[in-house]
Specification:
5-stranded antiparallel β-sheet, alpha+beta, elongated
């Protein structure tokens, strides 16, 4: 997800798709973040956390919230899906009249760009279910740990509380990561050509580097089963993409002629027949075809050069190699990144 407040920083790729906030209501501090996935660095950034702090989910009684399933807030191009529940607690409270067993008020918020908001309902429902099933009786340990970190003198007991809470925190983060990964890996099973919202969301995912080519492939291919969407070790933009059959050797931007040159190699020892090369440009997350070229015969180890015009004010392009309607290779091309390199 792009930084909603234009904070300049290096971002984890998952931030382009969603951010998950796990919060609790502290009896002395109010709304306090326990965890932000994928990155906790914004926890103390008041400007960044503004839509979280003032989300209406905090002020809605639990009985009303349950009837509505979840509460949404739109803010600067993002939808913040909020869900609240009570969880088990056994910690000493810091306000008179509250017992150790007084339940914790937990709030989960998932933010998605407007263009993929149709995924938010199921995602927050899935995350809430997984968190409650696995951590409902342990969330208070993270809260205890966060409170203990503020103590000036760290006794052995306080150190143990911090250690236990940190272990639960790491496990919770891992669960959220796996749940989000799995969700986006299986969310789109087929295209409903009548659904503009779904087509727009699929185009958005493709634009952000998520390979959705399987959707257009043979029946029986389900999900992103062989794709690591959020792999932090993912190759940098200089690696222009390859697979067993094809490899993009180079991409050049020709400023004088306003063209893109894409050099592709048949990476096998075999002739490849009847392939189609497509280049499209992306505007408002919809594609418009610039080139559709049929290659009757592609010789072993042969390198072919494909040239496409650059459309003024368009920086995002998609490159495909297809055979019998199956995508053999797909690559997002960002002219701004190419020019920097």
């Amino acid at each position: 997800m792009a930084d909603i407040n234009n904070t300049k920083s290096e971002k984890n790729p998952i931030e382009e798709l969603c951010i998950v906030y796990v919060m609790y209501f502290d009896e002395s501090k109010g709304h306090v973040p326990l965890l932000i996935y994928p990155d906790d660095k914004y926890k103390n950034d008041k400007k960044y956390m503004r839509p979280i702090k003032y989300h209406s989910i905090w002020f809605l009684p639990l009985d009303e919230q349950e009837a509505l399933d979840h509460i949404d807030l739109e803010y600067k191009g993002f939808i913040f899906f909020g869900k609240k529940f009570l969880s088990y607690s056994k910690r000493k409270k810091r306000r008179a009249g509250l017992e150790e067993e007084t339940p914790e008020t937990i709030v989960i918020i998932v933010s998605l760009p407007n263009d993929i908001e149709l995924f938010g309902d199921d995602l927050i429902r899935e995350l809430t279910l997984k968190i409650r099933e696995n951590f409902e009786n342990e969330l208070f340990k993270i809260i205890e740990s966060e409170i203990a970190k503020d103590e000036i003198i760290k006794t052995e007991k306080i150190k143990e509380i911090i250690k236990n809470g940190t272990e639960v925190h790491h496990k919770l983060r891992d669960l959220i990561g796996k749940t989000v990964d799995n969700y986006f890996a299986t969310v789109v099973h087929e295209i409903d050509i009548k659904s503009i919202n779904q087509q727009k969301a699929i185009s958005y995912l493709a634009l952000k580097g998520v390979d959705v080519s399987y959707i257009f492939g043979p029946k029986g291919i389900e999900g992103f089963s062989n794709i690591k969407i959020f792999d932090p070790n993912k190759k940098a933009a200089k690696d222009y993409g390859s697979n067993k059959q094809f490899e993009i050797k180079n991409i050049n931007v020709m400023e004088d002629s306003q063209e893109i040159e894409i050099m592709v190699k048949n990476n096998t020892d075999n002739e490849i027949n009847n392939t189609t090369v497509n280049i499209t440009h992306v505007k408002d997350y919809f594609e418009k075809e610039l080139m559709n070229q049929e290659i009757e015969l592609w010789f072993p180890e042969e390198e072919l050069l494909f040239i496409s015009p650059i459309i003024p004010h368009i920086n995002e392009y998609l490159f495909f190699i297809k055979k019998d309607k199956e995508n053999l290779l797909s690559k997002q091309i960002n002219l701004n990144l190419l020019k920097k390199n």
